[in-house]
């Protein structure tokens, strides 16, 4: 008993951030959006009224409304790729800022004053997205978020904050983002997601011409603090480093990263976490079939463990036992896709991974996947307690808490997406859902 409690993590066990400078930015697929423009200087395009009108005839636009319901000042940053493939920031007045690295292969700061959209507490701001935008993000931060521009093989890249890098220049800031794409034919896709992290609470409402409004409100205003309390409580139950998923600044939690992103910070913390469960699942399906409901033309498919591999009828290849990292990300090991994978394989990956994440494989009825509803998810250890707890703090059940949260037996759908071909106004609730 004494030995046990001495191994216990500190009461909270949070991970403290340590923000650095421009050299601490991360250039990766997830953080760096690359466009085509390369100029000596940044360019600012101020929409001329006439040009604006003619441009509007060709390119769709979108009304945006930002409601600052956070308990204080917030900066917004709207960035993405314009119809010519150039990376840009759109400012409150609809003018567009095209950053330039001046050819620098190391990142160069983008001046705050050129790109931020300030929002006083309680303020409502209306602005127009002047053109179609791909890979768009609207960031919201209780402070200043650091963005840089770097020369890439194809042009300019905008280097954005990395949520799980402790030395990221923005690591000490409470921030979050909404992702959006407005296609050239005027179809809007906007989403909120907790697959990577929970930060500044953001909710959305979309009004649609000639149709019903859509919403995805996501987490409550005090979600980060409450999720961190629940993770600490879980850590004191199973002595696993759940509290470490909470990133804190001076001890105050500002962001919760998923176990998938936490793996980069602590590759050993959960290494053995799923081992016994994986063994038990493999043992169970040696003598009875695991039935995967492909929910498509291939119907139900039987899978059996032979040797150490799960093989499914009609599948082009089998599945090894997943590691913790495989289960957190659903994209590696047995859950990694390869070219040539057939439709059975592509149907099994999300369903098998979701069944692990939610720990329903050994439950009664768990031999058919998916078949059990959400009241059966996350009931036994081990499980993805991050996903369990994040869902507990969603006000409307919207927002994926792992990559295949859309796998369900019925019409349950945790998708935090709003989408329409006739979008009117996208409203973002910052800091607190309505
Ligand atoms: C953008 O370019 C950088 C540097 O070449 C690269 O590391 C990054 O993965 C690229 N981003 C994407 C989304 O491809
Ligand atoms: C969220 O939206 C972005 C931008 O449109 C898109 O790239 C991404 O795949 C979407 N994610 C989900 C889970 O729908
Ligand atoms: C869930 O809802 C999203 C957005 O409405 C949709 O794109 C997706 O296909 C739905 N998934 C399922 C499994 O119904």
From TrEMBL:
InterPro entries the UniProt entry points to: Glyco_hydro_64, Glyco_hydro_64_fam, Glyco_hydro_64_N_2, Osmotin/thaumatin-like_sf
Residue span, GH64 domain: 59-428
Residue ranges of the region described as Disordered: 1-22, 411-434
Compositional bias ranges of the Polar residues kind: 411-425
PANTHER family xref list: GLUCANASE B (PTHR38165:SF1), PTHR38165
Protein name (database record): GH64 domain-containing protein
